[in-house]
């Protein structure tokens, strides 16, 4: 595969060997959609899963009154509708339509399921790939939340009125601060510990001393 | 299963029926570790995957010099080492040790792989579960990033000097603001559009008019 091969973006294909990849490529179709075009409608038999090469796609449900509820908006690089292939009733549970000029690759469900049926080993490898991806994402979510919390808390600290050259007094209980900064009290505690461990602040009761204000500001720039 | 059944936290068990769950429960072991205890060492044959019930666990590698590099810290509710079961060489790629008093459930790899071998249908259901979880997490990461960006940008706007009663002028290019707020320029654009769509601000060139400042502040409290 070349570096720009869009099939490299499909995590389901990670454990495939060249012959298996070639089989998926044979059954592959390309779709071009204009803005507003429908790709499939809720209840349609699910024959393909998709990779967005260019453009963006909305997944939506229609209420009885015909009102549209958008479930998700997906952009280039995203794969969708692949979970349907593993379900008992293979029909699309939502509708999909293009939001802009969109180019999609469609992969045949039966071709992929055929590969899995022939090779239990491939199936296990795929379970491994997905397990590892799930762990990566849990970590990413964790880091994002913490990064977020760090940023908010440092900004808050630097905005407080000083009671000494490098000192602020938290006059409100920590859970009130946490709530004001939209984070859980545990997250605030972890943030405080991290800043202390890094030697950026000293905490004595309600008093916080800035040991390294430039260092705190540098954390905001990341 | 009762509402407090820890096995409900194991996403790998989601598609299991009662008989299959009972088999996993039979082969299950419980481990109690004190802080500093080692659970397994890199290279050990992988017999179990784990769920943390109480406490926390670090996953780490040892350098040749015996220095420890922590890969991950996991807390109660987290599952780990399950990806190893799907690999060709079933030995733990890292070491694991307890950071505090820890109670773990250990599930037998062979018992779980046995269930998958007997039932291709179960295997497909599991692939479905994992696909759906991956999509949820992609969405969660997206929302966290955007929430983050919203918070930062609104805070930034409200801190700017007013050039009219409800008006600020962005005197620096948008990519500079984005960089200062640690976000991608595209994310800043999406944030601006969202605030405009919600009727909170009006954007004319470099001038931003606050149409609903209390509404902006409410977004910060979420």
From TrEMBL, chains A, B:
Gene Ontology molecular functions: DNA binding; DNA-binding transcription factor activity
UniProt xrefs under CDD domains: CAP_ED (cd00038)
Domain HTH crp-type: 147-214
Signal peptide annotation: none
UniProt cross-references to Gene3D superfamilies, sorted A to Z: Jelly Rolls, Winged helix-like DNA-binding domain superfamily/Winged helix DNA-binding domain
Pfam family, one: cNMP_binding
Gene Ontology CC: cytosol
Keywords (A to Z) from UniProt: DNA-binding, Receptor, Transcription, Transcription regulation
The Cyclic nucleotide-binding domain, residue ranges: 12-133
PANTHER family hit by this protein: CRP FAMILY TRANSCRIPTIONAL REGULATORY PROTEIN (PTHR24567), HTH-TYPE TRANSCRIPTIONAL REGULATOR ARCR (PTHR24567:SF74)
Protein name as annotated: CRP transcriptional dual regulator/ cyclic AMP receptor protein
Lineage of origin: Bacteria, Pseudomonadati, Pseudomonadota, Gammaproteobacteria, Chromatiales
